[in-house]
Amino acid sequence: MKNVITSIFLLIATLTFSQKNIYESPKFDNLSKDHKVLAILPFFTHLDLEKSISKEEKKILEQKEGYAVQDALEIYFSKRKKKKKFSVEFQNTKNTNAILAQNDINYGNIDIYSIKELCKILNVDGIISGNIDLNVLLSDGIASDFSFIDYILVDADYGRIGIKISDGETSKLLWRYEKKINKKSGKNTQDLIELMMKQATKKFPYDRESLKSRKGN
User: Fold this and answer.
1) Cα–Cα distance between 163 and 132 in angstroms, integer?
2) Can you tell me the distance from the alpha carbon of 50 to that of 71, in angstroms, rounded to the nearest whole number?
3) DSSP reduced 3-state for 45
4) Is the pLDDT of residue 32 over 70?
5) pLDDT single digits (tens) 100-113
6) Beta carbons of 31 and 167 less than 8 angstroms apart
7) Burial (CB count <10 Å: 0-12, 13-18, 19+), residue 29
8) Taking a C-beta distance cutoff of 8 angstroms, is the pair 80, 210 a contact?
9) Is 25 within 8 Å of 175 (Cβ atoms)?
């Protein structure tokens, strides 16, 4: 019975992992060879909640979710950076947001600036940004008390997230990772980022193991 359950879990993990969509630019090595520091921006969020809320409240909640993803990514990268897992540094998000604010750039108008402009303002070599579509408030945490059968059969879809890395000099897309968000993604934003980035580790372009693999091919 244990073998059957283990096989089922492995199958689920494989199917879940296969749902991801990873893109890497064929010009990544050339465009990123001088990259030393990347900035993480708050994510653009679209909320589609069941309950009726005002436009202003929706705007505030979307901003909250966007900054929650930014924070979760910084925590994830910081943990792995301590183990010397990455070839680049990541700008402290408090510094990133402070510099943006000093230049009158906020969550509501950051999209009118090009990647090149933002990198120049932040004094970084590249930008990590993205979008997240949600029908729940993930930063508040969601219920995770479901049964083993639910885990296998129920596919509660909470939305989708996309992370991308862009080059500061050319504004070109270097890497993109997209994933569906459901009950198996974790109970909050940090869980989601932790799980999805662990799944993408071998393909994350600044990961040292990924770089070794690339050079070995």
Assistant:
1) 9
2) 26
3) strand
4) yes
5) 999 999 999 999 99
6) yes
7) middle
8) no
9) yes
CA distance 68 to 50: 21
Beta strands per DSSP E along the chain: 21-24, 37-40, 44-47, 89-90, 126-134, 157-167, 173-182
Only one residue has tokens 């799980």, namely 195
Encoded amino acid at 101, one letter: A
Query: Encoding tokens for residue 160?
Result: 């989708």
Higher-confidence residue: 84 or 40? 40
Residues comprising the chain, all counted? 217
Q: Residue 12 has which token pair?
A: 């689920």
| pTM given for the model | 0.79
Q: What is the DSSP letter of 43?
A: P
Beta strands in 3-70 (DSSP E): 21-24, 37-40, 44-47
Tell me the pLDDT tens digit for each residue of 146-177.
444 444 444 567 788 899 999 999 999 999 99
Determine contact, residues 55/47, Cβ cutoff 8 Å: no
Please tell me the distance from the alpha carbon of residue 78 to that of residue 14, in angstroms, as a whole number.
27
Answer for the pair 189, 178: CB distance below 8 angstroms, yes or no.
no
DSSP helix/strand/coil, 152 = helix
